[in-house]
Structures are given as C-alpha cells and as structure tokens.
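Q: I have 470 residues here and want to know how they pack in 3D. Can you give me a structure?
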Amino acid sequence: MKRYLTVVSLLLLCGIQSIKANVVLPAIFGNGMVLQQKENVKVWGKAKLNANVLITTSWNNKTYTVKTNASGNWKTTIATPTAGGPYSITFNDGNKITLSDILIGEVWLCSGQSNMEMPIKGFGNQPILNSNDILLDAEEPGVRLFRIEKNMSRTPVADVTNKWEHANAVTVKEFSAIGYQFARMLQQKLKVPVGIIQSAYGGTDIEAWMTKNSLTGFTDFKTPADSAKVIKNDPAVLFNAMIIPIIGYNIKGVLWYQGENNRMNPLTYAQKMAAMVKEWRTQWATNQWPFYYVQIAPNVYNDHKEEIPLLYEAQAQAMTLIPNSGMVVSVDAGSQTTIHPPNKTIISKRLAYWALAKTYGKEGIAYMGPVYKSLKITDDKVILSFDQIPTGLTAFDQKLKSFEIAGEDKVFYPADAAISGKTVVVKSESVKKPVAVRYAFKDNAVGNLYNVEGLPSAPFRTDNWDNTKP
C-alpha cells in the first residue's frame, strides 16, 4: 500500500509539473538571436498540453495566439520588420518567459567539413592569415554567432545545447573563419545585423550531411549495419544531429565548403550536391534560398591524386544542377603543405561577392571568373575563348602557368600560354598537332588566370578522356 501511494504521488507530481511547465523553446531561439527581416518567420516549441500560448513581439506590440496539441507541441509564424533592434519576444502559457536582445537582420548558415569548421584561432600548427588583426575588430554588436557542437546520430535529434553569442575576440576565435568573416562583410556592406549559424564537422563525407531519402539511387558509399558503432561518415548521421535541430529557422541562404573527403568518388559528387540541396530546401519548406559553395583548393594529396581534378569538375558542374547556386574558385588560394589554406579572408570575400551581387542585388560587383567556352586549333596553337570576361583577361603581370597541351596520343606536356585580346593562346614545342588543353587540372596545380575584375578561372579541360590513364 505504501509503495502504491508513493507511485501515485510521483505521478501526481509529474502531472503538476506538466501543468505548471513554462514554454520550452529550441536552443536556436534564445536571447541575442537574429531573426530574418521582413518575413513570416517560423517559431515553435513546447508548453502546457492543449493550452493557448500568447506570443508578443516588442517591435509592434502584436500578440499572436497558438494552441498546443495533446503532446504540448506548438508552431506558428510571426512577422518581422525591417532590420533593427534590439527587441524582445514574450511567450506566455500562463507562465511567462521573455527573450531579449533580439536583432532583426540577415541570417546565414555555413556548413561542410574542416575548411568551413576551421576557426579564427586556426588548427594545430595551421594558422589563419591575419587572425589577430581579425580579432582586433571582432567586437561588433551587429554580428551574432550560433555554433553547433559536433555530433552524430542514426536517428533525428530534436535539439542542440548551444546558444547565440555576441561577436568578440573570445567568441570569434572559436568560430568558423569563413563564416564569421562572411557575416562581418555583409554586416558592413548592408549595414544591418547579421546572424551566422555554424554547422560543420571536419573530415566528413557529403553522404553524412544527406538524408537517406536523398541518397536513393546512389551506390558508391557504405551503409553500416544498424548494430555497428556510429561514425561521423555514416549516411545521414550529421544531417540528423546537426541540421535537423535548426530546420525551419528562417535563413537567407547557405554557405558550403566540403569535398576533400569525396575525392575517391567524384563522379557522383555533383548529383549528390544537387540531391542534398534539394532535400534541405524541401525540409525547410521555403523558397529556394541561395546556396553558395567553395571549390576545393590545390594541395599535394597523398592518395586519389588523379581524382582531384574530377572533383573540381564535379563541383563546377553542380552549379548547372542546383538552381540559385554559385561557386567560389580557390585555385589561387591553396597550400602545398596543408589541406587547410590559411587565407580564409579571400574565400569569405568571394562568397560575399556572390551574396551581394546575386542575393542582395548590388549592381556592378563581379562574382564569377573566366569560364572556358570553346577552342580553335590553328597549326600548332590552341586558342581558348571564355565567358565572364566583360573587360578581358589578366595574369597581373605574371606569366600564365599550369597550362598543358596534348596531341592525339593523349600525353600532356607543359605548355606556354599567353593572353591575346580576350583569348588565351596555348602551344608547346613537344606537341606539333594539338588536340586538347588542360588548365590547373592536377591536385597541386596553382592557377593565375583572372578576368580584369580580379576573379580566377576554375580548373578546366577541353577533353573528356579518362583522367586516370593515357
């Protein structure tokens, strides 16, 4: 009898606690957050069962009412004004909680593997260029940071444990060098608050960031047994743990830097990128927000060297498969000693060019470098033509490098290349009857062909031969 009364008492206590429970919000909704401006932004959480939750926004003193379901879950939208703040939002189901220091502005998500994860403080013996100078200017109230801790799961994870942080030398030091600098540049140029969400994990395959549904039809990846230990490159485990908890939070766009881990299966990479982006956009149930990404940089790879150029090619192809996307080229910003190039500022800036020109409509800003269009063979010379060169080509007073030329034997030789008007003329004494040209089409080849606007050409080839053998 005594035991029965104890159990009843515990159940009653739990019931009372449930009745008195405050509104519970996901971690992404918190003090100091940035909400996307001029939108009906989604808000959700838990509260008392079958109760009304009153949501009051300080920017217009409007109150929204939403009813919880039998499980206590609720979801609604609230209208945000033009950029500004700080504001507050009050949630009341009989017990009131208030979020304060809220800014309205632009929100971006940055994701991928280690080159996106790499913080301003750098990695061991691997610096970020000018990191201390970046930290000198880090204290900016108009930039807010939300860094998701690395995690993995075979099943969907409901929430994370992180919080929004102000930008200062201490918080910025730990944040993505690319993500933070992109946000800071937008904040300076748009003159509005910017929130940046980091969800990145070094050494990871694209398959781990995809859903099992979006991987349907692909066979070139390992599917572990359900009883196997979870590892970070299992399909969908990063999507489940590091993307699902923030799905629905209104964002302006996504930045992506990943690919090195897929150098062993590059031929399906473009299609996987397209499938991943399509699924993410579907899950967000919103318009096709922009997806801007970085082509991997040159490096001396120890394995799968021949596949690296094919990955370059796949990443370039992805732009034709993914609507509202753009690729940053880093062929001139790599490193011969580390897979983590120190100059993240130039990459952030090139991502910002895409965003400012294409997303925010800033006219006059170039965002793409020369794109190979066609070739013409004249005697022992190959003449290459390009798109995206309104004012022409340049190598900034340097000799063009990393061009190769081949004849019908498919053997490539180093070539002399020179700019002639809006074309590049390529030749070699070793090839009298040229057939094909390649530019920076090796794992460690550095390129220096730019348009006059200062943006580089991506690695390319004019042939479609098997890259792994003559």
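Q: Anything worth noting?
A: The first strand starts at residue 34 and ends at 36. Residues 104-359 form a domain with the Rossmann fold fold (CATH 3.40.50.1110).
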